[in-house]
Amino acid sequence: MEARSPRELEARNYLEKHRIMELLNYLTSALLFFRPALKILGLCTADEVFKDDGHGITFEKFRCEVNKRTLEIWSAF
């Protein structure tokens, strides 16, 4: 991804300097991965048991997918 204007380059440097993309990746992962977030969002009950049907998503798979999609989104800028 190459910056097209000085303003875009400045914005990219700011994001990198303050590690904003890393923060967004972490917050997204935390929101979707950690179970307390699921309860807060009303997506599961406190006593719900998660069953493994063989199609489970590991933390590594989840993290890679979030990173891939984040790069796709930010490549548009």
Task: Please provide a written account of the structure.
The chain is mainly alpha-helical and 77 residues long. Helix content is 64%, strand content 0%. The chain contains four helices and no strands. The chain has helices at 6-17, 20-33, 35-40, 59-75. The protein is elongated. The N and C termini lie close together (8 Å). It comes from Catagonus wagneri (Chacoan peccary). This is EF-hand calcium binding domain 10. Residues 13-70 form the EFCAB10 C-terminal EF-hand domain.
Please give the alpha-carbon distance between the first and last residues. 8 Å
What are the low-pLDDT stretches, counting only 5+ consecutive residues below 50? none
Q: Mean pLDDT, rounded to whole units?
A: 76
Helix count, per DSSP?
4
Work out the helicity level.
55-70%
Shape: elongated
Main sheet specs: none
What is the percentage of strand-forming residues? under 5%
**Helix and strand element order:** HHHH
* Rg, Å, rounded: 17 Å
- Count of β-strands: 0
Helix/strand-derived class?
A: mainly alpha
Write the layout of secondary structure elements.
Blueprint: H1 6-17, H2 20-33, H3 35-40, H4 59-75
List its traits.
4 helices; mainly alpha; elongated; EFC10; 77 residues
Quick synopsis:
By secondary structure, the protein is mainly α.
